[in-house]
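Support request, please re-run this one:
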Amino acid sequence: MPRLCSLCALLILASTATHSAEKTGDDYLTRMQREHAADTPIASAATKTEPASEVSSKDVDYVDIDGDTVAGYLATPTEGKPRAGIIVIHEWWGLNDNIRAMAERLAGEGYAALAVDLYEGEVAETREDALRLARGTSDKAPRLEQNLRGAWTFLKKDPGVAKVGVIGWCFGGGWSLRTALLLGDDIDATVIYYGRLATDRKTLEALDSPVLGLFGALDEGIPVTTVREFQGTLDSLGKNASIHIYEDAHHAFANPSGTRYNEGAATDAWAKTLAFYGENLR
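Re-run finished. Output below.
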């Protein structure tokens, strides 16, 4: 399948997302600010489960961008070679200990999980900080693109995995989709937890990987109407996509950080995530 150039894909995605935001009367990050109005980046129950098997973890320098070294967090199974690699993209709070814990949970399932840092060293402690950091990435698409390409290259060279998947929550969920569009058939499985979506055919034609999308019916930041449009476009293009909407769940229902955790929806979504990776990253 021909792949759009990365810059074109990102520009089209940004245009699509802007159009979607205009339909709701404000921009995406303003909606995120409302969704997280009373939220704080405390560890959610998602981080309380120990890895299924013993893991090793360390901070790693995984990419240089214009002379700046970016550090992430690599978790791998202690015994044996990783079955595949996963790029782990943080929420709008940044690369904190809660995201590190999720990388370790993935490593406990046999994967080399690299938690990237799209904020390059900054972590939000308040909603205002998170909004500032997320908004600060708006005009840095090429830099974030280099960051994610570097993460893929690191996983292929260092743990030496054959396949690479991607996962992200909230802000990271949107970037999970963008990573799949950017890297095309270099990504083997894409998991989107209530991330910002593209819905037009021209953008989504570039998607090569299977997709698992997990959303909340009560989410006003990523409205169900947009999720259905996303699903319909993927279906019409014949893409391999499995989209799940949890009726009693709000935005951030499975976030590693925050106060909006919904145990029933999050537990089911995690089980679906592991089954999806088990099927597509073998």
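The CA atoms of residues 253 and 262 lie 5 Å apart. The first helix runs from residue 6 to 24.
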